[in-house]
Write a structure and sequence with these properties.
Strands 1, 2, 3, 4, 5, 6, 7 and 8 form an eight-stranded mixed beta sheet that branches. This protein is an alpha/beta fold. Helices cover 42% and strands 17% of the residues. It is built from nine helices and eight strands. The protein has a single domain, classed as Nucleotidyltransferase, domain 5 (2-Layer Sandwich). GO terms for molecular function: 3'-5'-RNA exonuclease activity; nucleic acid binding. Keywords: Exonuclease, Hydrolase, Nuclease.
């Protein structure tokens, strides 16, 4: 039976466009089904979908950029019973307050000036995201956002929406911080993704600090914790 680290490498290029992405996603999901048939039963969850999210934002070395702006907006729709990735939302975002990326930001995330120059501004990307939520997820479904930490939905999204006078949708006001699920199961609260991967015998794949690749690694963590009979519930609510 292939290991989860092997499955990780099979999905390393899911972010690529066209047939390559579809083929990789089919391969990834077929391996998940093989593991399910092997008798590794996961705890039944109370949700239809997990929405795994991980923003990337403008940044500078050793000082805070004000305001900080989202430059990559990725979300993976994960079936909460099979743990297959059923759909992907991923767009780069053109920053408006600091339109030129710092060298540090590009080196950290691999996101280039060309990537953001050709992207939509946040208001347009967020509208696309809301349409995706309605059409591909379904607001009548039971879903739970999953993040690695609270920063994405507690700090970054509200501040970005405030810059553009956009209300934060109610469904973005509660989420699961996967680090807390890990702490419950493993007895160790870690600061980042890498210690969780190590603790679960998983390998990081893809490009570090690329939002879409971080999302895929979070999915692997989610799946590994589900194998340990972890029940996933919201860990944070905002008003």
């Amino acid at each position: 039976m292939p290991s989860l680290s092997y499955l990780s490498s099979a999905t390393a290029r899911l972010g690529a466009g066209g047939g390559g992405r579809r083929h990789a996603l089919q391969h990834f999901n077929s391996r998940i089904r093989l593991q399910q048939k092997s008798g590794r039963m996961k705890k039944v969850q109370r949700y239809d979908y997990f929405l795994v999210l991980d923003f990337e934002a403008t940044c500078e070395n050793e000082k805070k950029m004000n305001p900080q702006e989202i430059i990559e907006f990725p979300v993976l729709k994960v079936n909460a019973q099979t743990y297959e990735i059923e759909d992907t939302f991923q767009q780069f975002v053109q920053p408006e307050y600091h339109p030129k990326l710092t060298r540090f930001c590009t080196e950290l995330t691999s996101i280039t000036q060309e990537d953001v120059n050709s992207a939509k501004i946040f208001k347009e990307v967020f509208e696309d995201f809301r349409h995706w939520m309605e059409e591909k997820v379904g607001l009548d479904k039971r879903f739970l956002f999953v993040t690695c930490g609270d920063w994405d939905l507690k700090t970054m999204l509200p501040s970005q929406c405030a810059l553009h006078n956009i209300p934060v949708p109610p469904y973005c006001k509660s989420w699961l911080n996967i680090k807390k699920s890990y702490a419950i199961k493993k007895g160790d609260y870690v600061k980042g993704m890498y210690p969780m991967l190590d603790g679960l015998n998983l390998q990081y794949f893809g490009i570090p600090h690329r939002g879409i690749d971080d999302c895929k690694n979070i999915v692997n963590i989610l799946r590994a914790l589900a194998d340990l009979q972890c029940e996933f519930l919201p860990t944070y609510y905002t008003e």
